[in-house]
From TrEMBL:
Protein name listed in UniProt: Ubiquinone biosynthesis protein UbiH
Keywords: FAD, Flavoprotein, Monooxygenase, Oxidoreductase, Ubiquinone
PROSITE patterns reported for this sequence: UBIH
Swiss-Prot/TrEMBL cofactor(s): FAD
Family stated for the protein in its record: Belongs to the UbiH/COQ6 family.
Pathway in which the depicted protein is active: Cofactor biosynthesis; ubiquinone biosynthesis
Length: 411
């Protein structure tokens, strides 16, 4: 008979970011226990003050947050996105997505710090979740019976399943031999936030330039009543250093030019950060007693703002599988669960990732002919209701085989 230690739980989650903590809370809200291990200090990630980093949460992800009890803690903290406006370099032939009044918002914009803070408060209060943060992993192993981790303080953790939410550079994924297709885009994303003269009216703008997409995402006004938006600006990697060396005034002036004066005069609300853009997708997202979620399994261009939401679909699907399995008396790490998760998520993640990659490449082609073709395509979508409804469903995260949690229902 296999001995079970007092440190045994249903799952061990490596990674205490937004995906890892949501995974833990999602399982705990249905009675399953979890260890969460991360080498980062959670308090350092939640320091007071706005650092410019934001996340667009789709309406389906918000429905899941409501179902697991997080939604009420975020009430009033996010800015609804009521319309998405898409254009090819601010030229004629723009496309706008405006949902019916009965359908509500398309998504909400949150400061990352607030999302982390509210998630951390929830998981810290749960009797089913044990946080090991900050802690380094000294060793780990998986066999036919369990997954085992040894931490730098001597703790030995065991679980039926190891869930990997480490992010794009996941060592656990690589050590498990889970191969991925990946490439660099030779582009840099510059991310930050601005205060602006005109109200954004809850509109998200996606402006495509040959050098890369330029997104303006609505945020709540600050405590002074100033209008705010988040910026995600993709530029060629050879041009990024020059932009990042600009002073606040020069940078603001350049942003105003890129925006075509849509929101009037602007000032920087936080320093801009930058990171290289890349694509990766794992063919296999499971191994013996191991499952990948979020960026550990897939990463894409931010052109459609679906990266985190795609990871939340992983969370919702894996939660559904594990909860249903537990009610049948199966362990979390049972091979049947992993096979179901692999089949369910691998097709969806690949299709969304590839579609995003193709979209980025199409809009990166320069020249008048390419621009005219793109604008014709945008106008066709604008006039074709079924096509427009399809893309709106994608923006909401409501396409494909939708897990129960993403419908706002408990399992």
């Amino acid at each position: 008979m296999t001995q079970i230690s007092s440190n045994h739980k249903d799952v061990i989650i490596i990674g205490g970011g937004l995906i890892g903590l949501t995974m833990a809370q999602s399982l705990a809200s249905h009675g399953l226990s979890a260890h969460v291990v991360d080498r980062a200090d959670p308090h350092a990630m939640m320091v007071k003050g706005f650092d410019g980093r934001t996340t667009a949460i789709s309406s389906s992800t918000m429905a899941m947050f409501d179902a697991i009890g997080l939604g009420e803690k975020l009430d009033g903290k996010g800015c609804p996105i009521n319309q998405i406006w898409v254009s090819d370099g601010l030229k004629k032939g723009a496309l706008d997505f405006i949902p019916e009044a009965k359908d509500g918002f398309l998504g909400k914009m949150f400061e990352n710090r607030i999302l982390r803070q509210k998630l951390y408060e929830m998981v810290s209060a749960s009797d089913l979740i044990t946080l090991h943060m900050p802690r380094n992993i000294i060793s780990q192993s998986r066999d036919d019976h369990r997954a085992t981790l040894t931490l730098d303080n001597g703790d030995i953790l065991t679980a039926s399943l190891l869930i990997v939410a480490e992010g794009r550079q996941s060592k656990t994924r690589d050590d498990a031999g889970l191969k991925r297709a990946h490439w660099q885009y030779n582009h840099i994303a510059m991310v930050g936030a601005i205060c602006h003269e005109k109200p954004h009216q809850n509109i998200a703008y996606e402006i495509f330039y040959p050098a890369g997409p330029f997104a303006i995402l609505p945020m709540l006004d600050n405590e002074k009543g100033q209008h705010r938006s988040a910026i995600v600006w993709s530029v060629d990697e050879k041009d990024a250093p020059a932009y990042l060396k600009m002073g606040p005034r020069g940078y603001a002036a350049e942003l105003e030019t890129q925006m075509g004066g849509i929101l009037g005069k602007i000032d920087l609300a936080a320093d801009f950060a930058s990171y290289p853009l890349s694509f990766h997708n794992c063919i296999d997202i499971t191994a013996n007693r191991l499952a990948l979620v979020g960026d550990s399994a897939h990463g894409m261009h931010p052109i459609a703002g679906q990266g985190l939401n795609l990871g939340m679909r992983d969370v919702a699907a894996l939660t559904e599988i594990l909860v249903e399995a537990s009610r049948l008396g199966l362990e979390a790490g049972d091979a049947q669960n992993l096979a179901r998760y692999q089949k369910w998520r691998s097709i969806d993640t690949l299709s969304v990732s590839v579609a995003t990659d193709i979209l980025n490449r199409l809009f990166s082609v320069s020249g008048k002919t390419a621009s005219a073709i793109r604008r014709f395509g945008l106008s066709m979508v604008q006039r074709t209701k079924p096509l427009k409804s399809f893309f709106m469903s994608e923006a909401r995260g409501e396409s494909g085989a939708l897990p129960i949690l993403l419908r706002g229902e408990r399992i």
